[in-house]
Specification:
This protein is of the alpha/beta class. It has seven helices and seven strands, in the order ααβαααβαβαββββ. Strand 3, helix 7 and strand 4 form a beta-alpha-beta unit. Iron/sulfur cluster binds next to loops.
Amino acid sequence: MSSLAERLRLARIPATQPITKLIEAQAIAHTLSKPSKMPGFGYSLPAAACNVGSRLRPIEGSVCNKCYALKGRYVFDKTQHAMTLRLFAINHPRWVEAMVFQINYMRRRKPGADHFRWHDSGDIQSLQHLANICQVAEQTPEIKHWMPTREIKLLNLYTGNIPKNLTIRVSAPMVGDYLQSTPFPQASVGVTEAPSVFQCGAYTKDRGGKCGDCRACWDPNVTHINYPLH
Ligand code: SF4
């Protein structure tokens, strides 16, 4: 990545000039993240900026109480810095264009980059943010997008189109619990029994915390995925 001054200069690319270089897209949207578990790339934001998550965090037994994105490598200065830059970047008027450029750029170069994971840390910040994510998905039809969220109220307020290649999975707020009724596919933590539940196998002995060949999270037909406590 170039110096901050260079990035700021590039981020002022005139609106009439298309983005043609990765460095220009990164100057606007910052870099993509690379979740270690997943096959492709992602876009992580600071967990401290989660709206619903911040309210759940003090609650014992909530899925955010022991949030994985507030420890380990997520709290390294470099990671925090990158996530903070992304949080500012989502308001840039050319963010959608910059994201589309980067996602397509990676798809052409990296195996697994046809599956994109939104927010391995962080969550939707506003209706406009959600609309822009939908725009990114719509403009990258070759990519399968998956976004978990606890912002269920925001999602219910959203009246725009959700493209078919974007699977939004709503997350149950409490460990061991799941949503009895939702129009969206859902995710839970620590549920052992529920109708049609698919248990994530990433943490079984032979998988070492990796998705491997599994792409269930991106599949809207898998209506309930549970992540076992590990
Ligand atoms: S269910 Fe499959 S795709 Fe989802 S996190 Fe687990 S291993 Fe990865």
